[in-house]
Amino acid sequence: MAERMHATDTQNTSVPSEKAVDLGYYSPAKRPPPSFPAGYVLHQVTVQPLSSCPFQVCLLDVGATGELPTCDFHRIRDTTLIIACSSGELAAKTQLTLLEGGVDDVVDADDTDLLLLALKRAELVIARQGGLFRKCRDLAIERDNLQSAIDNLPSPIFFKNRAGIYSGCNKAFEAFIGLPASKVNGASVYDVAPAELAKVYEAADEELMQQGGVQIYEADVCYADGERRTVTFHKAVTRDRVSGEVNGLAGSMLDITERKRLEEQLKWAAERDALTEAYNRRRFFELAAAAKERAQKTSASLSILVLDVDHFKLINDRYGHACGDAALNHLVGLLKRELQEPHIFARAGGEEFYCLLEGCDLNEAFEIAERIRKAVETVPHLHDQQLISMRVSIGAATVRDGEKISQTIAKADEALYSAKQAGRNRVCVA
């Protein structure tokens, strides 16, 4: 409740404001208000005890003793400045007690000049508070708009302070981590990720915040459902607007699991023979070139076998192409069994295969070739309840200094031709 009272003009007043200022006045003892500068309008506040006030400034009558009346200051201090008005000057200790009790200022109301100064101080404080309030309101609106915007983005987005503690995130990050933002904020990476992954993220974060700038890298993550996936992290440091010092980072995550899977599938398809899933000719030459470099550095031997199925056309003609395809897969199975790492093989085309033997000289290559030939001869292929025998002819050659892989293959191919001419089902060396 508030009742309007007219301010009393005095001789010691400054020029009044153009617009009258409304003030509250509360006196538990029902004492009349003090003489007041012009330009102010007092309104009697009658709520007992003082727990609400509709005005930005309220004069609180504390009499001559400075005794603080019962007031619920915590309910009104956010909206109202309280000026304790005494009848006569109070001792410094009493004024301090009033200030510690919750009032914002203390003034001798009998001194009109001091009262006017107190009111002017209150106006300045209110003006500053209004500016701060508007700034806080604008910042809050800006923050809410930013949060709303990033919440609508599909990629997980997060913020961390300089110590690596989460300070914010969007809805997508909440879904990824399986925790609401209230539990993400204040947590460390060790609170939300397995230890072995958290170490990777922590090291990357620290490197970024020490070096500054932007950071992009791929890493595994563990989703809330326990599934491991691959993401690309895009992160950048944030800086203090005044000092320019790094005070944290902002990051986003792009799930590239499906892309990586597709890349692996495409890579596999580009390197493999579609029928047998053995390496194809192109991949063989890539692996052979790398093996040759290793052999040159270590002075190790490197040999190549060229293998061809004898009378393969007869298998196709007699049993059909499906049987011929199955026979080639049967041969690949035998090659896998006989050739252990680091040796590899590839389908060169048709019924012809290349074998790359690392660390093998010509004699060792001959022994391996003989083992393959015997395995093919002694293990027939079963197709439609029929045992189908196969034989192979093999040519072997060793890579010489200054020789290209294609030249070594040509030598082995000549040796293969010799094996065919000599009756097939045999090994010849170049």
UniProtKB/TrEMBL annotation:
Transferase as UniProt keyword: yes
Keywords, sorted A to Z: Nucleotidyltransferase, Transferase
GGDEF domain: residues covered: 300-430
Gene3D superfamilies according to UniProt: 3.30.70.270, PAS domain
Annotated signal sequence range: none
SUPFAM superfamilies: Nucleotide cyclase, PYP-like sensor domain (PAS domain)
Pfam families, per database record: GGDEF (PF00990), PAS_4 (PF08448)
A single GO BP: negative regulation of bacterial-type flagellum-dependent cell motility
The PAC domain, residue ranges: 215-268
Domain spans labelled PAS: 142-212
EC number(s) from the headed UniProt entry: 2.7.7.65
Catalytic activity, reaction form: 2 GTP = 3',3'-c-di-GMP + 2 diphosphate
A molecular function GO annotation: diguanylate cyclase activity
PROSITE patterns, alphabetized: GGDEF (PS50887), PAC (PS50113), PAS (PS50112)
Any single GO CC term annotated in Swiss-Prot or TrEMBL for this entry: plasma membrane
Name of the protein: diguanylate cyclase
Gene assigned in the entry: ydaM
